Amino acid sequence: MFRQFRSEVEAALADALATLDLPTDDLGIERPPDDMDATLASSVAFRLAGAVGDAPPNVASEVAAAVDVAGYDYLDSVDTAGPYVNFHAGERYLVDALDAAAADAGYGALPDRDTSVVVEHTSANPTGPVHVGRARNPIVGDAVANLMEYAGYDVDRHYYVNDAGRQMAVFTWAYERFDESDLDEEPARDRAEYDLVRYYRKGNAFLEEADPDDVEAAEEEIAAILQGLEAGDEETYERVGEVVDTVLGGMKECLARLPAEFDEFVKETRFMRDGSTDEIAARLKETEQAVYEEDAWQLELDEWGIEKNLVFLRSDDTSLYTTRDLAHHEWKFDNYDRAVTVLGEDHKLQADQLDATLELLGNDAGRLGHVIYSYVNLPDGKMSTRRGTGVMLDDLLDEAIDRAREAVESRMDDRIRDDDLTEEDVERIAHQVGIGAVRYDIVSKQPAKAITFEWEDALDFEAQSAPFVQYVHARCAGILDEAAAEGVDVPGVTGGAGGSESAVDPDALDVDAAVFDTEAERELLREVARFPAVIEEAADDLEPHTVATFTREFADAYNAFYRECPVVTAEDDELRAARVALVAAAKHTMANALDVLGIEAPESM
């Protein structure tokens, strides 16, 4: 509804400006401030004031007078507030929003765009457990993929495995060089990546501290592994592959806890073995930007505003990560309409170089989008996998679940619902709330902003946190269960998030939003109505954090409704039926907003 209303506003405003012989290139349509009574507003008068030669409020009045609302389904009236042109939706807007959202458990998902997208995220080197500093990548990446799916794209989730770089050569050498008896510590957990990372740490310590002659011999063995990979030696692939696949298997188990799961793990060596990396290097050598300097082939990318050259081939004709990644991205373009990559801030230069080089090779770099994020810190400081001093994601999730369990148990006496929670229920809620708290606290921030994770904020049931917004869904579920127990017809079949309920025919809903006469009811319904547009805009901008912002705003609107508007005990049957439908609509909206963020929507808390 909101998307259609916005389209109607755009059309009506453009027509008005054309009638006044004013430019229509920038309509300035936006959500109005909270204290302004309008569904949408336009700031176009600010832009036009100079051209018209009059004050913005006067220009706004002239524009508003020229808007014709006849013939539109939802656009009902236009007025002004100072320099703003305000657009108001009519009663049908709310009626249709209630029908659509109450009837459809998948509400918010947009029609199929017939466009394929590959979202690559996480792609952490398989050198050990996933640590907290990198946790933002799988959480943001998974949310981006979910968001694109809700926006109607056909999405594949990929993890790009760096199995050809020096780190993996060092790891393979160390795994083969040392025995269990050489290691100084026991595995921190009984899982493969915690076991094998000890060899990686031992190898790095050896290369830093051992006798120079021994280090030189070790470096020769490491170089031989790298050369074997480059030459396509099958035995070398198998040696490295054993380490990579074992460590990656453990990392998958950790990521599944978030959850962050993948359709394909694409190995870097794939593009060495199929010849595409060599082909990329040959094409780059032929470009005008290619130079041979400092014993390496490089690209000068000054015309793209990039000062640092891109090195794509060493003097011994071995490729680099960037060369193989170029082949990887051309493979993406061959198989998908669009590609999105989630990268840490330390890869910003690499992303710029990649875009420029892809364009140089004749690709449409506009098909590739990047989400660049800053890292997550704990108050204790920085983390390092290589030295073994980091805080692992597993540790964070365990702590989150433990703290959530304590919080749930401490609030048992304050619960409104009279159902008895079993130990199994408490454990389920602790997982939903604990892991949800971690995900929400991370995904709700703008990616470019650094995060210091604070437990008190993440698990605060009263503040704007995961438990705060999850509680809205639980309250909705409780009201609908109570209504059903009282014999009230409840739209759909109550169930889980993300479209797991059955849809019903909106025409079969015997409710009328026109009976709503409180601002709390109507404001909640307006928030419901704009949810599909939130999905659309967030997907266009690759910004899942704006969906998190929506959940907080939605929770505020719902809680005002909850305080002021009795549902099951409403004063008459017609109002009760409409409010039950509104609660169902709110439940679907919050469930699916949380689903985009990868957060479970509890039925009870």
- What is the typical, i.e. mean, pLDDT? 92
Number of strands: 14
Number of helices: 20
Helix content bin: 40-55%
Q: In what range is the share of β-strand residues?
A: 5-15%
Name the structural class.
alpha/beta
Oligomer: single chain
Radius of gyration: 28 Å
Morphology: globular
Main beta sheet, described?
5 strands, parallel
Lateral arrangement of strands in the main beta sheet = 7-6-5-11-12
Unreliable runs = 381-389, 493-500
Measure the end-to-end span. 32 Å
Task: Please outline what is shown here.
This protein is of the alpha/beta class.
Account of the protein in words:
The chain is α/β, with parallel strands linked by helices. The strands form four sheets. A five-stranded parallel β-sheet has the order 7-6-5-11-12, with helices on both faces. The protein has a four-stranded antiparallel β-sheet with strand order 1-2-4-3. It has a three-stranded antiparallel β-sheet with strand order 8-9-10. Helix 2 crosses helix 3, helix 4 crosses helix 18 and helix 17 packs antiparallel against helix 20. The chain starts with a helix and ends in an 8-residue tail after the last helix. About 3% of the residues have low confidence.
